[in-house]
Task: structure prediction
Amino acid sequence: MTYDGVRVVRYGPDETRVGTPFNEQPDGSCALWFEVEGRDDCPLAVEFDGVFLKSVRLGSMLTALLPQSLIAVPRELNIRIFDETRPDNPVLLHFYVLDPRGKKIRGKVTNPVTKVPIPGFFIIGPPRSGTTSIYWRLQAHPSVYMSRNKEPYYFDPRAEGVLNDAVIDRDEYLSLFRFAPFQSKVVGEASTTYASSPEALRRIQIFNPQAKALLILRNPLTASVSLYLQHRKGGLHEHASSFQQAWNECENAQNRPFISNYRSLYKIGDQLASASRIFGERLHVMLFDDLVNDGTSVYAGLLRFLGLQVDSLEQLEKTNSSQLENIESIVSPELLDEMTDYFLPQIRLVSEFIGRDLGHWIAR
Result:
């Protein structure tokens, strides 16, 4: 049972009596487990007779969640395990739903073919605001499927030719969701540039008029510097040797690619107004501060917004977006004053919209 260096050593169970749950989970599903060897860097999908299951891989253990509705009829089923990037070369396994007397039923009863879902939830950004932490936490939820390509940028007209991972073709974009598990109630992605593109937001609305969106707002003074440092560390999208130089170049949008225009990317007041006009009550707004200080409660609020059961509320992992509490070590007092003047109208718009005092964002 091998393919491309990945081997299924053993798995279980391989049978159950009709209507009899096994390894029952808090949500009522049953857990199939697979011990695998080989590459641990490939995204493995588990297909249960035509239906994709929610799966999680931790080291050599792959676990898939099976709704009890799929073991309600005695039958013989196939299990396919494959790399999502190479679905034509699967490991083939078998599973039996025994009749009430415990006998195997030979011959298949095929599940109805399910159509590929379209995404209905979008984490729209902006960058360096805790979006990655939320993306991974949602990915672990049993009722959520987030695209493996976290940021396909499909709806952002600025992305083509600028962002290497941008997905331009519609069929390629939809294929990102073809392995969404059977039990997924929320299917989505997390392209963090959408917030700064009104056209991207309009395209999302046309694509799926019922789509929901999440906007996470962070102090633009620290977020812009954090993104600059990330670009410098990664060696992409940034040539300026200092943030002062980068900030000055941003004054003329023609001087820089949009992904490193630290002014336009963090016009958070305008972004909130635009997203609110398009999504209305289908927009959920978080503050980065709340995510850092009380991530568990904030995440629970997001689940309720999505209409999902609040799963185990262990502490949300710390966001990877540096808080940069000592911003003065990176920018001069003069530049900080200039940035404050530039972003103050945006901060006031957000403060008025959400009804919270954000004066601490600019207090020094």
